[in-house]
Amino acid sequence: MFPSARSITSGVHFVNSVRHSSNVRLSGRRVMKTIKMGKARPAIFHQFETFVELSDGSVVKRRSQAPKDEIRMISDQRSSPMWNPTRDDLDDTDPNAVGKVDRFRKRFGGFDGAEEASEKLSFQERRKQANEQKENLFDLLGENATEVKGGKVQPKWAKKKK
């Protein structure tokens, strides 16, 4: 279609234009601008209004990305002993003591005899055992650890001048 770069016709030299990708017209299409670093717009997520029912029965209205009208929390900050350390009625010895797993254990858990032994212990004794197990775990994790003393502490970075 395109002859060589030079063609000779009756003694007159014509230079044919050669098309490169940089000279291509986009037929009226808009060319996207390059986005500079730090200037990109954040992604906008749609938020739905949902009602969250906490474990004590109270209902809170929140905004969430999940398109659900109502969410029921089984364990939350009201029923967690970590958030309420002074409440004695919260039992943290068995983390699976809620829902289907607990019902299964109550129904079929007595076959090995471990269930009977744990029922004989009072609530305070079970909590004491759980705390001892946690302490034993922390002791086990730090068994061969040595404290590093000395060295240089990283100074705070100087604020960049703009």
UniProtKB/TrEMBL annotation:
Residue segments, region Disordered? 63-98
Q: Which InterPro entries does this UniProt record tie to the protein?
A: Ribosomal_bL31m, Ribosomal_bL31m_N
- GO cellular component terms? mitochondrial large ribosomal subunit
Query: What region holds the Ribosomal protein bL31m N-terminal domain?
Result: 29-86
BP GO terms, sorted: mitochondrial translation
Which residue windows does the record flag with biased composition (Basic and acidic residues)? Answer: 66-75
GO terms for MF: structural constituent of ribosome
Q: Which PANTHER family match?
A: 54S RIBOSOMAL PROTEIN L36, MITOCHONDRIAL (PTHR28174), LARGE RIBOSOMAL SUBUNIT PROTEIN BL31M (PTHR28174:SF1)
Q: What is this protein called?
A: Ribosomal protein bL31m N-terminal domain-containing protein
